[in-house]
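Help! Submission page says 'invalid entity' but I think these are all valid:
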Amino acid sequence: MTATTEVSDTPVIKPGGAKEVRRAFSSRTASILIIVLTILWTIPTFGVFVTSFRPGHDVANSGWWEFFVHPKATWENYHTVLFVGGSGVTGGIIPYLVNSLVITIPATLISLTIAAMAAYCIAWIRFRGSDSIFFFIFALQVVPLQMSLIPLQRFYNLGAHIGTVPIFPALHLGQHHPIVQIWISHTMFALPLAVFLLHNFIAQLPRDLMEAARVDGANHFRIFRTIVLPLITPALASFAIFEFLWVWNDLLVALTFGGYNVKSTPVTARLQQMIGQYGANWQLLTAGAFVAIIIPLIVFFALQRFFVRGLLAGSVKG
Amino acid sequence: MSVLASSGIVTASTFSDSASKLGNVIEVVAVFFAVILIIFFAAGRATGRLQRPLAILVFLGPAIVLLLIGLVIPAIRTFYLSLHGADLVGAKYVGLKNYTWAFTNPTEQQVLLNTLLWLIVAPVVSTALGLLIAVGVDRMKRQNLVKSLIFMPMAISFVGAGIIWKYVYDKAPDGLLTAIVTALGWKHPPLWILSHPLNNFLLMVIMIWIQTGFAMVVLSAAIKAVPDDIIEAARVDGAHGSRLFFSVQIPMIRSTLIVVLTTVMIATLKIFDIIKAVTGGNFGTNVLANDMWNQTFVQFNVGRGSALAVIIFVAVAPLLAYNIVQLRKERATR
């Protein structure tokens, strides 16, 4: 953000600066420290990965590292979790994975679109009070989501009133379309951070470009569609990753507005439910946990090349 | 045989069900974008004095409405409820009683102390580790592998993290930590999750495990963006090695460091899922956000829960104010 001024003075960025820092830390100890940290960071997840392939009897009686002494592996756990259920659980986890996708994809795209529009407006259609609105939206990050749940629930069911005068009708979505409630709620909660990050990116687009388009007679809608959106793709992609991960991993919003049912419950909530039902069958839980982790990991690895680029030009310059 | 056949039928119906659900999603997304495009087209036809206000309305309107309903009104309502008694509807005005309760009740004092500890330890450690890795990983081979592995916990849900860390903190034979200290000669290690105040730090480790990846990604982007001639100038002036790092590079990425610290701090203040999944707030590990949930949804004391929410807001207010001052400067220079 400050970088707008600084970088325009020094438009050429050579990679030499980073090199000097590298030299400062080029001691062998730094590398070793990082390798140790990486291993420490990975071991807990790796342990669950190993556990998910062990037979139930082994899991109950020995730590997962014993696997390397007495290797005994099976696909049974995954088969049970995905297709069968077992131990008092009916049905596999696949419908819940689909629910997670059904919740996550629209929630991510809708919040991203609305946030990008708002960010463009704050950055390039300046008006009295646009600064204040920007800071206000930034500050909303701190409102604890838990406190919004009851008012929102009431709003969906009863609409909005001033006194007895209705100003917004009740939506009555809970019965048949709980997922729509979940989409709207996730969009609301994602907006403060999304508007903030995208604004920082959009505000840095070259002023000349915008003015040239205005002179050519393009209106704001045209500029937004044909100039801004293509240029901010990396930022959109990097925020899309974050938003996808948050929504996919969310438990609270999905439970509050969807409850437990095979129509709308996402995989996180199913997993939490299974902790109660599977009880001692931890081999099944670990397999379930891994199934739930796999899709966000795929999304992350598929989009990660955008990630650094998007954040680089975004909020985070020194 | 029949079992196989029936499981085949179940799988087939699951499949067609899933396909139709995903089809609906594509429809919904297509309709959403179509509506936006139509609105853009219609509003774009306006000319003259109407043009600007209409553009502002279309671009900013949806976000403002959603934020008002989802966050602003609930926040105001929370403040109002924090000055009232336990019930959701029709509670009496009690003044600052809920706040005095929060600051004088011994259990709540423990909660506040824990939250304070969390706020100091978790953001600072994750930012420091993130910075260390961001700087150090640059010259390593396979840096993408290292970065991905460090970032991986960000992609794991708190429910998943709860299951993962059970295998670290559990008692024998499951817990890795127990196994390691036993192997090192500690005959009867305690039950980690029950040992107060150690358990607070063990829970913080989980948060640090999740947030370090975030700090690393953002900081490594910032370090790469520092203009080269500044480094050159410092080198000509005789700054080298760690001195160059601490007196040139760190100040250059200062505002990024602050953004990262703020973001992690806000996430820490709202931390809820980790506590809920691992200890449920028992054994002296409760923090504000979790207690707020308990007061509101378990004890059904909405007034107290709301007061705790307001305390959370006030706690980060100075940090937010500082960030806003910085932002204001930056927006002014544009």
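Support: the input was valid. A stray whitespace character was the problem, and the output above is from the cleaned input. Chain A touches chain B through 132 residues (CB under 8 Å).
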